[in-house]
Amino acid sequence: MLAAAEYLRAHADERTRLEDLARSMGISRLALLRGFKRVLGVSPAEFARQQRLGRFREKVRMGRVTDAIYDAGFGSSSRLYENSSEVLGMTPKKMRTGGAGLVIRYRTAASPLGRMLVAATDAGVCSIAFGKDDTALVEELRGRFPKAELVQAKADTGWFAEAVEFVASQMSEHPRAAKFPLDVRATAFQQRVWKALREIPRGETRSYGEIACELGMPKAARAVGSAIGSNPLAVLVPCHRAIHSDGSIAGYRWGVERKKKLLAVERSAKTQQKH
Length: 275
Prior knowledge:
This protein has 275 residues and is an alpha/beta fold. The protein folds into three domains: 2-96, Homeodomain-like (Arc Repressor Mutant, subunit A), CATH 1.10.10.60; 103-169, Methylated DNA-protein cysteine methyltransferase domain (Double Stranded RNA Binding Domain, 2-Layer Sandwich), CATH 3.30.160.70; 188-274, Arc Repressor Mutant, subunit A (Orthogonal Bundle), CATH 1.10.10.10. The protein has 13 helices and six strands. The strands form two sheets. It has a four-stranded mixed beta sheet with strand order 3-2-1-4, with helices on both faces. A two-stranded parallel ribbon has the order 5-6. Helix 4 crosses helix 6 (77-88) and helix 11 (208-214) packs across helix 12 (221-229). GO terms for molecular function: DNA-binding transcription factor activity; methylated-DNA-[protein]-cysteine S-methyltransferase activity; sequence-specific DNA binding.
């Protein structure tokens, strides 16, 4: 199944017939369908669609929307528009301009892990991040959404307050559940990896290889690491629970010391619960 996925990824700009792909692998069309969904969690058609949309997102930043549509493998603009809103979250025109027209409100606050930023669209929270100071946090947000309108929220209320309280509670013996809505776009594979992270019990860790095996993709540890590194929701998607196979702690986008602190608190809470 990994070979089939790699083929679809490499030929995202082409229309691959499922029958031809199955024949090249020496299996039936039905076996390919079932095996692909079991391993990757989506159908070959959905996987291919995700790849085309991902390619479109990259190409549209470098040129005209029309050229990107065809270069990414969409036969017409209508085919793109049928698929774009669900995954891209904005129209192709807005994507080309880096999200121009999108309003993102944010607040910075103190937390047990240092300065943090919470950002949200009208649909939900799109970012939870830590940084050395407020300026660095806002600049990082601007890097993710270069053409969106960033507006500092007037008060720590609603989703902002809930997110700040959620993060603070994770450093205690009684963590809260996140009840605020999210507005994060991700590929099908990223969604599977992030879901696997959220299923790791508090106080435990998993290596990238172990997560890959749990997903039925034992050779995809590097891809898993990449998906973990792209997580925009610190603590809520607990990427700090992913470690190297030798047990070493590294590779946390918000700083290794924060990762160590989070893990220490979680392990301590788990130990106390046993007594």
